[in-house]
# Entry
Amino acid sequence: MDRIRIKGGRPLNGTIPISGAKNATLPLMIASLLTEDTLVLDNVPHLADVILLQRILNNHGVDVMLSGKRSGGAENSGQTVKISAANIVDTTAPYELVSKMRASFWVLAPLLARMGEARVSLPGGCAIGTRPVDLLIMAMERLGAQIDIEGGYVLARAPKGLRGGEIVFPKVTVGGTHVAVMAASLANGTTVIENAAREPEVKDVADCLVKMGAKISGAGTARIEVEGVSKLGPTRHSVLPDRIETGTYAMAVAMTGGDVLLEGARAELLQTALDVLERAGATVSATNAGVRVSRNGVGLQPVEVTTAPFPGFPTDLQAQLMALMTRAKGTSHITETIFENRFMHVQELARLGARIALDGQMATIEGVERLKGAPVMATDLRASVSLVIAALAAEGETIVNRVYHLDRGFERLEDKLGRCGAEIERISG
Ligand code: UD1
# Structure
């Protein structure tokens, strides 16, 4: 199993290219199941989760062609993926695959909408809480699906096709909104989705679906209206930049000091997080080329932050912010409202010398003068990268074990940081 070795204490200076968003790429690839025509996606990040989803789609009979970088494309540009679901040969998504990546459960919606049936394994346990799928199932039922649970599988049927309906989410859910929009696109009649997730990735997927011929309005707001069509066609779409990767590197720069251009990043996708970084003492500016983050000399100020659905502070940046606050001059509070168990990084950060107390959903972080390197264990995607951020500022050497979590969501992390002056290397095996 690969590990990452980091020697802390170096500022970051230079340019970090921001990849296409994982959380848009996955639902976009899944949306390919809605059409028998080819969907071409550009700016797809090189990530383990993309490869895994490719395998899952292959299992349904979908052809996925990953091409390398485009000729003439920049060295770091994302890959182009051509996906053709002309012939769906199997409407079952098995446990062995769905349990490895929760988002693959979302295939339920396009399979049901296009084929009139789907059999998808329940995703099972997850390291960051129970993460149920009840609201996704509710959404499909509101569109006329008949749902049974058998042997750990959701059996969804709509032999005469789905019909438009009103879906009111009692809680904001990104996955719920994705599946509702996908399914409604091929349903008979009009669907209204209330309390929809407003995340930029929801809008990106909806934009792609509209190019495929779907009739969707209001994506990016809390009320989305979808007028079903009988068929969707081919299109080409470029994945929007990853706001979580952007925020992660922005926090790394705030942690180490230095000056980095996050190339291709779009500030409006993470304004709340960038505002928090400015309050903490970083300088942030949006330029034509991306987002520039620097911190020179000034100490880090403590902050009070509560995670919330977009446009609030993203839960996916909570662990990284906590790492940053371990070095603040004073006491910070971070409250997690989206996932009940997303504090697994706390014990590992403590191994580096952080002082963090947990009380229910709130973490109190008392800033310390120095962190010290140690062997630590990556537990989930965002927790792992928070350890990297802490290690970049820790004295001495940190070894981050189990970095396969990082590879699921961060493309060439050690390379991107290394080029900006970090002493970081991957140890294979
Ligand atoms: C997506 C993101 C993930 C991010 C999360 C919240 C992808 C691939 N993943 O995950 O990175 O952390 O949004 O921004 O885009 N819930 C229910 N019942 C359901 C569904 C969700 O109770 O049927 C709850 C969840 O337990 C959680 C909250 O709703 O407390 C939000 O979850 P949701 O937005 O659905 O997260 P994902 O779409 O799984």
